[in-house]
Amino acid sequence: MTLSSSNTLSRWPTDRLLLWLLRGAAAIAGAIVLLIVAFLVMEALPVLRHVGVARFFTDPSWHPAEGFYNLTPMLWGTLFAMVGSVLIATPLGILSAVFCHYYAPPVVARPYRRLIELLAGIPSVVYGFWGLVVLVPLIGAIHPPGPSLLAGIVILTIMILPTIALMADAGLANVPQQYLRGAAALGLPRWATIRGVVFPAAKSGLFTGVILETGRAIGETMAILMVCGNVVQTPHSLFDPIRTLTANIALEMAYAVGDHRAALFVSGLVLMGMIAALVAAADWISHGRIYG
Amino acid sequence: MIRCHALFMLKKYAAPVALSMASLMCVPPSAGAQGTAADQLTGKLVITGASTLAPLIAEIGKRFESLYPKVRIDVQSGGSSRGVADARQGLADIGMVSRAMKEDERDLSAFPVARDGVCPILHQENPVQALADEQIVAIYTGTITNWKAVGGTDAPITVVNKAEGRSTLEVFLHYFKLKNVDVKAQVVIGDNEQGVKTVAGNRNAIGYVSIGTAEYDATHGVPIKLLPIGGVAASTESVRNGAFPLSRPLHLVTRTPPVELAKAFIEYAQSRAVHDLIKQQYFVPLAD
Amino acid sequence: MVKTLERNLDGRELLASTLVWSAAALVTATFCWLLWDILWHGLSQISWTFLTALPRNAGREGGIGPILVSTALILGVCLGVSVPIGVGTAVLLAEFTTDASLFGRLTRRSLDVLSGVPSIVFGLFGNAFFCKTLGLGFSILSGGLTLACMVLPILIRSTEEGFRAVPAGYRLSAAALGLSRTTTLFHLLLPAAGPGLLVGLVLGVGRAIAETAALIFTSGYVDRMPESLLDSGRALSIHIFDLSMNVSGGDANAYASALVLVVLLLAINGTASWLAEHWLHRRIVTV
């Protein structure tokens, strides 16, 4: 499908210019992440140098003011919140896109899509605020204290849902009409068509959606900070409060100085490492052809 | 000598103007023509730092701008540590720091502009009316975990603590001689309003926040109440007269002793002309 | 066709239907609750004066005039920079590189990592790079550029998906007609990839307009009317954050500002999809 530039000699000089322009754009886009990593490493270096990497995983607790730097509980917190919300949001988002395309009458589908688009742009503060005022007391009534891993998962699910729903929606829209007509001609019922024809055809779009929502779930800060309780501990149940790596940075950066501040940048680095590992894992699972 | 002169100028021109909001909003064009200090002060001041102070300094900045139309005061929020760092690196002309200055910050010139108290808060429907210092310590260290033990209902206590590094935390820990490692919290929060909202949404929670914030919210229908410390009622009034034991100063800092515009602004921020603004933002003006 | 489908509704079909409908209902209900909450608390504050006036008393009183202007400018800078770079990268990845190309793979992976960088890290990075290293200071320009970095992965990914969805036949026909690839791109592929681009734009604008942490360190906190792109300007989301978390008694105006933001977003998304439907669609038909 792709017309490779190197082996298709173009007669047009504009084509060559275009290609260089595009390469320039891509180089900029690709370099940003390097710049960010370089920046994080630079800021984190002082503490890494005289505290060492190991102590970030072996110290008894996270009390940077007293010289303890253990990040592991927050790593688990981030991971649990992310896995929980992605597990709920992915089926929900995909089903919601399926609803839009194959179940809802057009009168419903249009406003429904608008609604989802709207949700993509509501500031995380508003979600967090709503979570703090409505959701947390509700959970607190069932099982105190209220701010918990569960609250975090629910809020994150709501926040990343628009991403996966819209990406899945676009993915489904791209499934060629011939496929659907073919399925209909074969007399396949609706769900069988979706499962057997639409999903495989839209695989790439769906997968991209999952990657993007996972990124969002890991990177989300403000809302999580407001509903999770932010206690540094490895959660033993859904009702335990947790702190994520992002919340850690946002909570303490404002007043951190010296090593404490540098340790927060280590949080950032760990976060980036996590995402990189995740992307690599996704790549490996799909044998390097996730976008094919 | 120069300082006296500047103060004289400020008093002479600022005080009458401060009396009426209307004249603040539009400085008469003749003000410049009179050849006053308004002519000499021009330029832009960048002030960064503590989010607690940012709204107040922004308001003071607006009033200052209206006195000296050629001056621009840009206030940026982001935290005390940023205020210190930016002032040190010269990124900001003035830094805002919402705590007492630390030992290793002696290189900066610090100017207190206001005070702020810290007090424990409970949900309004919590029957407990006061807690002794030892009881608060016991609750925060996890020795008391049920309200029944301090005369309340039979319910587990939700302890709300502040995030590491926050100055309210430091004031609180210092007064109760606690170490943050010993605190057993169920919720850790960042900003004051988050603390108020957390306690307002949980009948069994105890937290501590800035008195100004708590006082405002309690008088505006938010279901929280302020607990006294050592028998002294928590209010901006008791912080003002020095009776309340938990308080922190709010500072403006500069890398070098301030000159010209920065000096004029800091002196203005410390003057009586802004006391109404300080009260309006629920902080406590410094006693004269 | 509908009849065939209905006749074939066996148990599994019924189950799937129920699931899909209830998922949609759940999503709608949650969001209506949230929107209603904003509407309920915010509507009474909204007036023409609120939209145009200057904020007073730290935002408890007065309006959001300068804040709206700053928000628009920041968004303008962000899209002005990120859309060309984003679409360019997407075109390169989708049309001009093979799956085996190392450059393409590296770019993709780095974008995936970028999509998970927390917004506060973007903020600190933007502060160090745009404000300090490039010397732009706390300005709308710095804020817009930081946001551009942030929305790039979303924009590129969804646009790329859009290009992938264009049938190969288009490219082959264009090549057979002897069109240059630049022409093919601008007249055939770009319009055909419209839906993907649109989703990227909607998600990108949504993320940008909702951003708080990245902006507080870059575009800043000043709520004066901006006079140039190098002035600091407070974005709507920062205003909401400050009012709800930092200013006691700011809730009412925070809700009102959130409502304005939602309406703004509705307008932007509506315009974008109208453009996609009318303009892009017409192009593809007339070319």
* CATH fold field value of the domain at 76-261 in chain A: MetI-like fold
The percent range for helix content of chain A is over 70%
What is the CATH domain class of the domain at 76-261 in chain A?
Mainly Alpha
Distance between the termini of chain C: 33 Å
Large-scale geometry of chain A:
globular
Radius of gyration of chain A: 23 Å
The total number of structural domains of chain C is 2
- In CATH's first tier, which class of the largest domain in chain C applies? Mainly Alpha
CATH architecture of the domain at 76-261 in chain A: Orthogonal Bundle
Show unreliable segments of chain A.
Answer: 1-9
As laid out across the biggest beta sheet of chain C, the strand order is 1-2
Distance between the termini of chain A: 10 Å
Task: Please name the defining characteristics of this protein.
heterotrimer; A: 292 residues; mainly alpha; MetI-like fold; two-stranded antiparallel ribbon; 12 helices; globular; disordered N terminus; B: 288 residues; alpha/beta; D-Maltodextrin-Binding Protein, domain 2; 2 domains; ten-stranded mixed sheet; 13 helices; 10 strands; elongated
Task: Write the SSE topology.
The complex is a heterotrimer of chains A (292), B (288) and C (287).
Chain A: H1 13-51, H2 55-58, E1 62-63, E2 68-69, H3 72-103, H4 106-120, H5 124-142, H6 149-173, H7 177-185, H8 190-201, H9 203-219, H10 222-227, H11 245-252, H12 258-285
Antiparallel strand pairs in A: 1-2
Helix pairs in contact in A: 1-12, 3-6, 3-9, 4-6, 5-6, 6-9, 7-8, 9-12, 11-12
Chain B: H1 2-19, H2 21-25, H3 30-33, H4 37-40, E1 43-49, H5 54-67, E2 71-77, H6 80-89, E3 94-97, E4 109-123, H7 133-141, E5 158-162, H8 167-176, E6 187-189, H9 192-200, E7 205-210, H10 211-219, E8 224-226, H11 236-240, E9 247-254, H12 260-270, H13 275-280, E10 284-285
Parallel strand pairs in B: 1-2, 1-3, 5-6, 5-7
Antiparallel strand pairs in B: 3-9, 4-7, 4-8, 4-9, 4-10
Chain C: H1 2-7, H2 11-42, H3 48-52, E1 55-56, E2 61-62, H4 65-96, H5 102-114, H6 119-133, H7 140-164, H8 168-176, H9 181-192, H10 194-209, H11 213-216, H12 236-245, H13 251-286
Helix pairs in contact in C: 2-13, 4-7, 4-10, 6-7, 7-10, 8-9, 9-13, 10-13, 12-13
